[in-house]
Amino acid sequence: MNTALLYHLLDVDPADGPAELLRRARASRRLPYLVLSSLARDDVRMGEPARAELRRARARADHYVRLARDLARATGIRAIRGLPLAGYYPPGLLRPQNDLDLVAPGEAALWQAVIRLVTEHPVERIEVTLLGDRPHHTAVTVQWPADDPLVDPWYRVRLVTAALAGDGAGVPVRPYLVADDHVECLIALAEEGLTRAFRPDDVVDVAALAEQPFEPDETAAVIAAYRVAPEAAALLDLAAAHTPLGRLAPVRAALEAELAPERRRRAEAAAPRPPARHGSLLRRTVIRHDWDEARLLPAADATVLLTPVADYLLTATPGGITAAQRTAAFAALHHWDALC
């Protein structure tokens, strides 16, 4: 995994030089820091603005490490996807990590972690989504500005009570992810393919995992059990076009037998799964420290979600609410406040 791979992934002629590579990387907010760290590792000349940008990115990554460690000790949450994957990168190479993904053992732990984040950071945005129905799972995204909010991505911490959210159709929510760390990372990468196209940075992640001790048949069976065999195969096929798969090559071969059964399961899914319900912010509240879970409050033609940090109007699509629903939601809140 080196700068030559980045030139190849971003379709830049090495003769055009590192400035063109960085310019191309800036088309995505995920890739500039990876490119900068790779160029710094190669001792490419760069001025103070570039070095300062890289320092801020490293400070951001270090802050995420501390956040995950402290929240794990306090609430039992654990990091998935980005932070564990960063541990497989070569020394000095900075994995793109705009977000910190955390999975909580239950709703109480999730809200405890959210309360700590809101208390200890200048949080400006709190987004809530409910996944599934009876029981539902909760996803919360907490955001606050970076030191330079015009240049750098905001800090964004995503907490969820289910490790793998599925696609809302043929692949269900899977609450738990239990496997060897490097296998979990591969499964979490494959899961991304359920909701978006794979990107160049996903290929770099595969390159970082390529020499880990994957056992082909066992790994393929675990991936199939978590219902992402087609996505894992597509990811590895994309990566193979750009970089050697190493120990992942026999995993890709073993996955071939799992593809048709998974596609058949999805085609035979009995019925559409309940859509995710998104929270449209009504108001931030004084922190309800004694609440272990959110509460649903019925309103005319609407449902209000009361959480330990804010109250929301639930909708099937983000922002898709009417003036009448908002009026009914605030009326329900006023009635709630009068009873409390």
Q: How is this structure best described in words?
A:
- With 340 residues, this protein is an alpha+beta fold.
- 45% of the residues lie in helices and 15% in strands.
- The chain is built from twelve helices and nine strands.
- It has a nine-stranded mixed sheet.
- α9 (216-225) runs parallel beside α11 (249-267).
- The radius of gyration is 22 Å and the shape is globular.
- 39% of the residues are buried.
- The mean pLDDT is 92.
Strand order of the largest sheet: 1-2-5-4-3-6-9-8-7
N- to C-terminal distance = 58 Å
Give me the count of strands.
Answer: 9
Mean pLDDT: 92
Percent helix, as a range, is 40-55%
Name the overall outline. Answer: globular
Tally of helical segments: 12
Unreliable parts? none
Q: What is the string of helix and strand elements?
A: HHHHEHEHEEEHHHHHEEEEH
Largest sheet: 9 strands, mixed
The helix/strand class is: alpha+beta
**How much strand?**
15-25%
The radius of gyration computed from the alpha-carbon positions, rounded to a whole number of angstroms, is 22 Å
